[in-house]
């Protein structure tokens, strides 16, 4: 059967609607231009009426009679004078036009004297970087015109540059990181220290755009984030860097904030994470934040090498297999994790060969969170035992297929003590706290597009997932609830997210419940260390 064509009103409806909207917009603009005097006079009459009401309200009650007599006398005199009403109407319209005028200050046509001096200083400072003696018509020269190279510029309330577009000659090596770094350092120093600048290099158009970034929010507390299974929120970044927002609560306030989401699991390209930072920069906060998110659907094993008790609030909670702070416990836990990874691989492979789904005991994710494991490595070297970091090779290499994720937090001065397996397989990277451009590039693999600040709050840094862009990062506030310096709001936010405590595996209930039937009771689960010994002996 032949297909009927669409009605003309449907086939050309969108074009007609767009044309109608354009005509309506043009008519509205024309009407506004024609009726502008009437609009101004009406606005002035409204302001004069409001001023009259305020004057009447401010006048004492005992003077209302004399004021009315004075107004009536003026009206009578104006009515008796020849052409008085006409002159009164003209005077009233003139006063209304004066009161209804647009009082917004006119934007200046150009920068003022101080802003001009600042732009000249920037221009002169860029001359050695963007000029050469062989250029017959140099764009940059001492005493040259700065307005030719700065087509766009904006200043903030303090008179410092907030936005700047810089043109540069085509022969400048903008593809070399060293040349870019020198120019970025100069512009950030001359435009004002203590702020973070974003540099956007347009290599095709030979133009550099400098923008001052707003500080990331530091008042976001730990909470349940709206994420899919296998997604964890590392922190929050700039709205222009990601295309996704998360609804968050801050007291009674609701707002949407762009997150940095890290995806783990079988199809993840960055299944493991390495976080680097100095003490007090928020690496332990990041690990606590990840632990609270993972406990909703997985199990975690924590190894704390610093021995500061940062994870005592997680001890004995549902889903927390162990929190090991000594060398013996860390070795036992990581040996069990390596054996568990191998067991999961064998079970999954056997199920695939049989054409059946993976077993249920291999689907629940297992996370290994290690905070400063190199400190335990020094103890192991002194005792002549195995380094705990060496036991991470199996979980790192085969963790994605087995549902095992490894997160390592370390400091800059002991970063070289980590094994090659951690540096090769932990392709998701986070750097927290103040760091130089060289340190950021060594850890992240690429320099950031912003200037690192010298003083940053805790949990502030950069993140890069695999070969993706380098993003600014602010970790949500997840402090230790047992710390006395923690605020009540943040402490309560963490306590609300903690799962309930379970009975320790090495203790029995005081009064065991009688079984309903005479079926043999299930054996009590062995401690984690016993599991490791059994796995090693087998």
Question: What do these coordinates show?
Answer:
This protein is an alpha/beta fold. It has an 8-stranded mixed sheet with strand order 11-10-12-13-9-14-15-16, with helices on both faces. Strands 1-2-4-3 form a 4-stranded antiparallel sheet, with helices on one face. Strands 5-8 form a two-stranded antiparallel ribbon. The chain is elongated.
Q: How many helices in DSSP terms?
A: 15
What is the general shape?
elongated
Q: Mean pLDDT, nearest integer?
A: 84
- Poorly predicted regions are 6-12, 508-538
Q: Main sheet: which strands, in order across?
A: 11-10-12-13-9-14-15-16
- Oligomeric description of these chains: single chain
SSE-based structural type: alpha/beta
Amount of helix: 25-40%
Question: Distance between the terminal alpha carbons, to the nearest Å?
Answer: 73 Å
The total count of strands amounts to: 16
**Radius of gyration from CA coordinates:** 35 Å
Largest β-sheet summary: 8 strands, mixed
β-sheet strand percentage: 15-25%
Defining traits:
alpha/beta; 8-stranded mixed β-sheet; 15 helices; 38% helix; 16% strand; elongated
Outline the fold blueprint.
Blueprint: H1 8-11, H2 13-34, H3 36-58, H4 64-80, H5 84-99, H6 113-126, E1 152-155, E2 161-167, H7 177-191, E3 197-202, E4 207-212, E5 231-236, E6 246-250, E7 253-257, E8 259-263, E9 273-277, H8 283-294, E10 299-304, E11 320-324, H9 327-354, E12 366-371, H10 373-383, H11 393-402, E13 404-410, H12 420-425, E14 428-432, H13 437-444, E15 460-465, E16 471-474, H14 488-497, H15 528-537
Parallel strand pairs: 9-13, 9-14, 10-11, 10-12, 12-13
Antiparallel strand pairs: 1-2, 2-4, 3-4, 5-8, 6-7, 14-15, 15-16
Helix pairs in contact: 3-5, 6-7, 9-11, 9-15
């Amino acid at each position: 059967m032949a297909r009927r064509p669409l009605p003309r009103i449907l086939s050309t409806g969108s074009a007609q609607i767009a044309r109608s909207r354009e005509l309506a917009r043009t008519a509205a603009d024309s009407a506004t231009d024609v009726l502008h005097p009437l609009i101004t006079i009406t606005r002035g009459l409204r302001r004069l009426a409001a001023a009259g009401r305020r004057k009447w309200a401010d006048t004492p009650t005992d003077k209302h009679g004399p004021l009315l007599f004075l107004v009536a006398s003026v009206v009578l005199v104006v009515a008796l004078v020849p052409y008085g009403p006409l002159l009164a109407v003209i005077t009233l319209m003139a006063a209304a036009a004066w009161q209804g005028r647009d009082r917004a200050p006119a934007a200046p046509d150009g920068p003022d004297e101080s802003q001009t001096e600042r732009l000249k200083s920037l221009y002169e400072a860029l001359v050695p970087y963007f000029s050469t003696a062989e250029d017959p018509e140099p764009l940059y020269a001492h005493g040259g015109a700065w307005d030719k190279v700065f087509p766009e510029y904006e200043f903030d309330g303090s008179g410092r540059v907030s936005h700047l577009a810089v043109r540069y000659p085509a022969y400048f090596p903008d593809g070399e990181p060293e040349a870019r770094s020198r120019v970025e350092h100069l512009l950030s120093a001359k435009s004002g220290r203590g702020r973070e600048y974003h540099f956007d290099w347009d290599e095709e158009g030979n133009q550099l755009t400098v923008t001052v970034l707003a500080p990331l929010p530091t008042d976001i507390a730990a909470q349940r984030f709206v994420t899919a299974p296998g997604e964890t929120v590392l922190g929050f970044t700039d709205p222009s860097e990601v295309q996704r927002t998360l609804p968050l609560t801050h007291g009674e306030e609701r707002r949407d904030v762009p997150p940095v989401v890290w995806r783990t699991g079988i199809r993840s390209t960055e299944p493991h994470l390495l976080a680097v930072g100095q003490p007090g920069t928020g690496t332990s906060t990041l690990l606590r934040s990840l632990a609270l998110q993972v406990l909703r659907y997985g199990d975690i094993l924590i190894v704390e090498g610093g021995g500061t008790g940062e994870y005592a609030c997680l001890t004995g909670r549902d889903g927390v297999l162990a929190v090991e702070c000594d060398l013996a416990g860390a070795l036992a836990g990581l040996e069990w994790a390596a054996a568990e990874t191998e067991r999961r691989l064998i079970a999954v492979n056997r199920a695939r060969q049989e054409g059946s789904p993976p077993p249920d005991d291999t689907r629940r994710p297992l996370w290994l969170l290690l905070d400063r494991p190199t400190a335990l490595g020094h103890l192991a070297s002194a005792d002549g035992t195995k380094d705990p970091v060496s036991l991470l090779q199996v979980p790192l290499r085969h963790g994605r297929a087995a549902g095992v994720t490894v997160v390592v937090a370390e400091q800059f001065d002991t970063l070289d003590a980590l094994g090659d397996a951690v540096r090769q397989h932990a392709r998701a990277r986070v750097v927290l706290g103040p760091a130089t451009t060289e340190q950021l590039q060594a850890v992240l693999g690429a320099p950031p597009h912003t200037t690192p600040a010298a003083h940053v709050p805790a949990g502030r840094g950069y993140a890069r997932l695999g070969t993706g862009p380098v993003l600014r990062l602010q970790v949500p506030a997840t402090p230790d609830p047992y710390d006395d310096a923690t605020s009540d709001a943040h402490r309560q936010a963490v306590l609300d997210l903690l799962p309930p405590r379970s009975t320790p595996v090495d203790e029995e209930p005081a009064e065991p419940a009688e079984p309903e039937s005479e079926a043999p009771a299930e054996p009590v689960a062995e401690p984690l260390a016993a599991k490791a010994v059994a796995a090693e002996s087998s």
